[in-house]
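Check my protein:
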Amino acid sequence: FWQLHRTYIVTQIRGGLVLIDQHNSHERILYNEAQQALAGRDRGVPTQQLLFPAHLELTPGQVQAWQTHSDQLAAMGFTIEPFGGQSILVQGIPASLKNWNEGQLLLDILDDLAWDDKPSQENQVDLLASYACHGAVRAGEPLTVPEMQNLVDQLFATDTPLSCPHGRPTLIQFSLAELEKRFGRT
């Protein structure tokens, strides 16, 4: 494995070469992980307790979204407690998150959900997509070889490894025959 422009994971396969989009792939992994947790197919997403809990001030819309979706957020790996007024204290976050950004991820998710009055199937999909997109490793972010290996292994363990939740491809495969043709070897 190696990284191309800190955005794509490049790996050789028996029949050629594969380019894997690290953001789209991690987005698919996070989405499926949270989807299974919310569907009750496992015990929820593993939580990483924060050494120093994050104190976040919320807007009224974010407070409403947090109150409406608190059970879903807990199943997704967030440990959140009220902290007076429009404040919350985040004690734990999903262990597989790459981009917590000191709480900005949660604020962005709550902003995306601020218009939802009650949990429904449709806004659950919105919640999952927002969480996966905001929490996934970004294009331009360096990854170690073990991180790349882990991401690829987790991607192929999902039910739908070929696209992210938004429908974008996670990988592009180039056959050896296609490469040889491009280099004039055929």
Remarks:
- The helical segments are 22-38, 60-75, 104-113, 121-135, 145-156, 176-182.
- The chain has a mean pLDDT of 91.
